[in-house]
Amino acid sequence: MIASLRGTVIDIGLNAAVLECAGVGYRVIATPRTLGILRRGEDAFILTTLAVKEDSMTLYGFTDSGDQEMFTVLQSVSGFGPKLAMTSLSVMNAEELATAISAGEAKTLQRIPGIGKRVAERLIVELKDKVAQWQPSSTGTDAVGTEHGPAGVAGEPSAALSEQVVAALIGLGFGEKQATAAVDKVVAQQPDADSSRVLRAALAELGPKK
């Protein structure tokens, strides 16, 4: 199992980064919050979880040990795979998820794309005891040091930014039409937002409304 990576960040996308370690490039799926800490050309250390399927092996990366633990806990629920777990952590961090589950806030959980009423209720029933004693750290385990801000480039053309975020949403399983509509709405409301902020806001926009 690959538990962590230390190396040079050679590429950062909307939902993944590539770290070169001893001459090998590892593609790691991560949340906008994690990607926002990484910097191209700089060394980084991130925690990783390897998901193995019959036809693929996928690395998921985290700068916070609490998020990594929640990623695993979420998947203990039937039908809750790594993609939905990562989407959940893109909208809410581990502490927010634990709070919503412990308090039985199904409507809050339904803000996450892919989680409807039944799934939200199942999360609460199956995980309430598991997250009841969740002990969030005041700072978390920031594996790459101080957060410098989002990874998006300030002033990047809005058209190119929108295309990148739409592509990332399509990769998460959303249709092109609904992804485009959500991104256009976010960009119109937040014209100065970088790609990471737009992606997170679009994910929230695509989630079920209260």
TrEMBL record:
Region (Domain III) residue ranges read 154-210
DNA helicase Holliday junction RuvA type domain location is 1-61
Q: Where is the Holliday junction DNA helicase RuvA C-terminal domain?
A: 162-206
User: Does the UniProt entry include the keyword DNA repair?
Assistant: yes
Q: Alphabetically list the UniProt keywords.
A: Cytoplasm, DNA damage, DNA recombination, DNA repair, DNA-binding, Hydrolase
SUPFAM superfamilies attached to this UniProt entry: DNA helicase RuvA subunit, C-terminal domain, Nucleic acid-binding proteins, RuvA domain 2-like
- Subcellular localization(s) per the UniProt record: Cytoplasm
Quote any Pfam family the record assigns. Answer: RuvA_N
Q: Domain comment, in the record's words?
A: Has three domains with a flexible linker between the domains II and III and assumes an 'L' shape. Domain III is highly mobile and contacts RuvB.
Q: What does this protein do?
A: The RuvA-RuvB-RuvC complex processes Holliday junction (HJ) DNA during genetic recombination and DNA repair, while the RuvA-RuvB complex plays an important role in the rescue of blocked DNA replication forks via replication fork reversal (RFR). RuvA specifically binds to HJ cruciform DNA, conferring on it an open structure. The RuvB hexamer acts as an ATP-dependent pump, pulling dsDNA into and through the RuvAB complex. HJ branch migration allows RuvC to scan DNA until it finds its consensus sequence, where it cleaves and resolves the cruciform DNA.
Stated family: Belongs to the RuvA family.
Name of the protein in question:
Holliday junction branch migration complex subunit RuvA
Species per Swiss-Prot/TrEMBL record:
Corynebacterium propinquum
Lineage, highest ranks first = Bacteria, Bacillati, Actinomycetota, Actinomycetes, Mycobacteriales
Question: Source gene?
Answer: ruvA
